[in-house]
Design a protein that fits this description.
With about 450 residues, the chain is mainly α. The protein has helices at about 15-40, 45-55, 60-65, 65-70, 75-100, 105-110, 110-135, 145-160, 160-170, 180-205, 210-245, 250-270, 275-285, 290-315, 325-355, 360-370, 370-385, 390-415, 420-430. It has 19 helices and no strands. Helix 7 runs antiparallel to helix 15 (about 325-355), helix 9 packs antiparallel against helix 10 (about 180-205) and helix 16 runs antiparallel to helix 18. It is globular and about 65 Å long. The N and C termini lie far apart (about 60 Å).
Length: about 450
């Protein structure tokens, strides 16, 4: 006689109440503060992140601890519920980020983009890794050894925020300009390399930094890239063609399923799920406008609801009190200085090696300096892996916010002196900017 399995306990009434209130309050604060940020000409990501800081231990936890304990209880089950909702937002956000990668643009501008990418990625990566070995041990997370931590800091210094940069260029009417095209191409390369390197860090963080783990993670990474080119792209294309002909909302459902399953695939290989989501977004976008429009249809909900919820949740982990420690404060200032200088100088030198003039090189260095939401996703991954603790997480988020705020005014000042060429006017008339949506 078979015995029926015991039913799985459902979420408690109180747990459901708290989750619903958390989502509502976080979204109210995130959207309200993002509108306020826009009024003072700051990126929306700043306001959405600050919402979490306000509701987290830094402010609400100090001013009204009883209310904070009810709204944000420390029980793992309750924390994981909100984290799961935010994680879905991360995967879809990163998938949409991948859709900004214009492979045709990279091919068309390959010489200049190659030089700019080499300068803006290799120099910051090298300086960031060196900085990671020099930062105090008090910034290491519980599961982080020094090599993994150093490589993670290198990646954090090297990445650029492709979605933030694309939105900035569109808002400033620079996407059709030559300088905007180069910035987008180089930012795409830095993001791709950043996510791929993150997969190595993720694998070594769980097994320890040793030669065997590095070789294994590199092998899995190469396997994934080969599978993306020779298996995933033809398969996704075969699925998307009939879906595109059928119309309706099936396309939106299909791209969400693909992003989630791609994330599951890299997760199964002990790589970060965001790597699979990013590569899936690149593949879907590369199939053409018919496939890309389904990602465009998903984008409004992701950007209006899921992304602000994730950013506010990320802000909950920021401990501003950690900056009261002189060692942590100095570490934050040094990290910020290295991140800004390395990216700016690397982008500038790469542009000059690519035979661009001084003004174009300055604009490229300024544009690539923005880290934005990509850096915040990266910091969240580092915190979840145990490579970062609350202090180092706060430092990385601080770099993301400050560099995103710095980019637009410097870009505005440097591009003002550039004459518009005939080729740029033609590109604007042909509306080629549709390849990199906001």
């Amino acid at each position: 006689m078979s015995l029926a399995a015991d039913p799985v306990p459902s979420i408690s009434h109180h747990g459901m109440l708290v989750l619903l209130v958390q989502i509502g309050v976080l979204l109210i604060c995130a959207k309200g503060l993002s509108r306020l940020a826009a009024v003072v000409r700051l990126p929306a990501v700043v306001g959405e992140l600050v919402a979490g800081v306000v509701l987290g231990p830094s402010l609400l936890g100090t001013a009204a601890p009883a209310l904070s304990d009810w709204l944000l209880p420390r029980e793992p089950e309750q924390t994981h519920l909100l984290g799961a909702v935010a994680q879905l937002g991360v995967l879809l956000l990163v998938g949409i980020t991948g859709s900004h990668v214009d492979l045709e643009l990279l091919r068309r501008r390959r010489v200049t983009v190659t030089w700019v990418s080499l300068g803006s990625v290799l120099l910051p990566l090298a300086l960031g890794v060196g900085l990671g070995y020099l930062l105090p041990g008090s910034l290491l997370g519980a599961a982080g050894d020094r090599p993994s931590f150093a490589l993670f800091i290198g990646i954090a210094v090297a990445v650029s925020a492709l979605p933030v940069i694309a939105k900035t260029l569109l808002d400033m009417d620079l996407m059709h300009r030559d300088v905007g095209q180069v910035i987008i191409g180089a930012a795409a390369v830095s993001d791709v390399l950043g996510w791929l390197l993150l997969s190595i860090v993720s694998a070594t963080a769980t097994t320890g930094f040793r030669a065997g783990a590095v070789y294994e993670s590199v092998g899995f990474l190469l396997l994934v890239l080969v599978a993306v080119v020779f298996v995933a792209r033809p398969l996704i294309g075969a699925v998307m063609r009939p879906v595109a002909r059928a119309g309706g909302d099936a396309g939106m459902t299909t791209v969400v399923i693909m992003i989630v399953l791609a994330a599951a695939g890299t997760c199964a290989l002990n790589m970060e799920p965001v790597v699979g989501a990013f590569l899936c977004g690149v593949v879907i976008s590369s199939l053409g406008i018919e496939s890309r429009r389904f990602l465009d249809a998903v984008r409004p909900f992701v950007m209006a609801v899921l992304a602000p919820l994730f950013l506010a949740t990320a802000g909950l982990q920021v401990e501003l009190g950690a900056l009261r420690d002189p060692v942590t404060l100095w570490a934050a200032l040094v990290t910020l200085a290295v991140a800004v200088a390395a990216k700016f100088v690397g982008g500038y030198l790469g542009a000059r090696m690519g035979r661009l003039d001084h003004d174009h090189a300055l604009a490229i260095g300024a544009g690539l300096n923005a880290r934005g939401v990509v850096e915040i996703v990266l910091a969240s991954v580092g915190r979840n892996l145990g490579i970062l603790n609350s202090a180092s997480y706060t430092i990385i988020v601080l770099v993301a916010v400050v560099t995103s705020v710095m980019a637009p005014p410097i870009l505005r000042r440097t591009t003002r002196r550039m004459a518009v060429t005939a080729g740029e006017r033609l590109r604007e008339r042909e509306h080629s900017v549709h390849a990199v949506p906001s």
